[in-house]
Design brief:
Blueprint lengths: L1 H39 L18 E4 L3 E4 L3 E5 L3 H6 L10 E5 L4 E3 L12 E3 L1 E7 L19 E9 L3 H9 L5 H4 L5 E3 L3 E2 L10 E6 L2 E7 L7 H9 L9 E3 L7 E3 L4 E8 L6 E4 L1
Parallel strand pairs: 3-13, 5-9
Antiparallel strand pairs: 1-2, 3-4, 6-14, 7-8, 7-13, 8-9, 8-10, 11-12, 11-15, 15-16
Length: 279
C-alpha cells in the first residue's frame, strides 16, 4: 500500500509539471516569435527614439528646443467674413464650419513631399494653436474665464487647398477630405510658447509669396474668437495634448505651386523672425 501511494504521488507530480509546462507554452511561443522578429526587423536608429518610440510620427517644433507629437488637426473654416465672401460662401453666424486634416498632412515649411504636386493649390495662412493639456468632453463652459489656459504654444500654418477639387466636392454635397487632407497639406512653422509675453487676443500675421504680400489678418477680424473655438470643440470632443487648431484664414487666398517661396511672420504677438519656406 505505501508503494502504491508513492506511485500515485509521482504520477500526480508529473501531471502537475506537465500542466505547468503546457501553461508556459504560449509565453515561450511569444518570446520565440519576438526574438525572431527582432532578428529579421532590426530597429533603424534614425527612425526610433528612446525606448523604441518611432520618430516617424508627425510632430511640431516649439521654440526652445522641445517637440510635440501631433494628434488631431482641427480646422475652422470661413472664420473671416471677407474670406468667406471672396469665395462666394455664406458667412457663418451661429456656429463655425469645422473640418479635420489627417495628422499625416503636417509638414515643416522646408521643401518636402507633397501629394498632387503637379497641381496648383490655394494658400491659406492661419494662426495655429497647439493644445498642451487634456480637456475632457464638455470641460470648457461659458463660465470658464480662462479657456485659453489649455493652449501650450502658437504658430503659423498654411492650409493648402485643392480649390478645384473642393468646388467639385461641394457641388456634389460630399466631404472636403480630398481637397484639404493629403500629404503636405498642413505646412507648419515652429511654435512660440504661451509664456505670458503676448496676448492671444492681439495677434496679427502676414504671408508673402515670392516676395509679394498676399494675405494679412488680425485675430480681431475672426467671427468666432479663440475662446469660442476652444469651448465649441470641447463641447463635442475632448481636447488632447498635441491637438492643433487652425483658427481660420483672412482674405487674399491665391495660387501656390511647387517651387514657390513663401514667408510667414507675426506682425503682433510672438516676437519671432519671419519663417521662410518653399513648396
Amino acid at each position: 500500500m505505501p508503494r502504491a501511494r508513492a506511485g500515485r504521488g509521482r504520477r500526480d507530480a508529473l501531471q502537475e509539471q506537465s500542466s505547468h509546462v503546457r501553461g508556459l507554452l504560449p509565453c515561450l511561443r511569444t518570446h520565440m516569435l519576438s526574438a525572431t522578429l527582432r532578428r529579421r526587423l532590426p530597429l533603424h536608429p534614425s527612425r526610433c527614439g528612446k525606448r523604441g518610440v518611432s520618430t516617424l510620427l508627425p510632430s511640431v517644433d516649439i521654440v526652445g528646443g522641445e517637440r510635440s507629437e501631433v494628434r488631431n488637426v482641427w480646422c475652422i473654416g470661413r472664420n473671416y467674413a471677407a474670406h468667406a465672401r471672396e469665395l462666394g460662401n455664406a458667412v457663418p453666424t451661429e456656429e463655425p464650419v469645422i473640418f479635420l486634416k489627417a495628422s499625416s498632412s503636417c509638414r515643416p515649411l522646408s521643401a518636402g513631399p507633397i501629394a498632387f504636386e503637379s497641381e496648383t493649390f490655394h494658400h491659406e495662412i492661419e494662426m495655429v494653436l497647439l493644445v498642451g493639456e487634456h480637456v475632457p468632453l464638455g470641460g470648457l463652459t461659458a463660465e470658464d474665464r480662462n479657456p485659453t489656459a489649455c493652449v501650450r504654444a502658437v504658430g503659423l500654418g498654411l492650409d493648402l487647398t485643392r480649390r478645384g477639387k473642393q468646388t467639385e466636392l461641394k457641388k456634389a454635397g460630399l466631404p472636403w477630405t480630398l481637397a484639404k487632407s493629403f500629404a503636405g497639406a498642413a505646412l507648419l512653422s515652429p511654435f512660440a510658447p504661451c509664456d505670458g509675453s503676448f496676448d492671444l487676443a492681439d495677434v496679427s500675421f502676414e504671408l508673402s509669396v515670392n516676395g509679394q504680400v498676399k494675405q494679412s489678418g488680425h485675430v480681431e477680424q475672426m467671427i468666432f474668437d479663440v475662446p469660442f473655438q476652444l469651448r465649441y470643440i470641447s463641447s463635442f470632443a475632448p481636447l488632447l495634448p498635441g491637438d492643433l487648431i487652425f483658427t481660420g484664414t483672412p482674405a487674399g487666398v491665391g495660387p501656390l505651386t511647387r517651387g514657390d517661396e513663401f514667408s510667414l511672420r507675426f506682425l503682433r504677438g510672438p516676437q519671432l523672425p519671419a519663417f521662410e519656406g518653399v513648396l
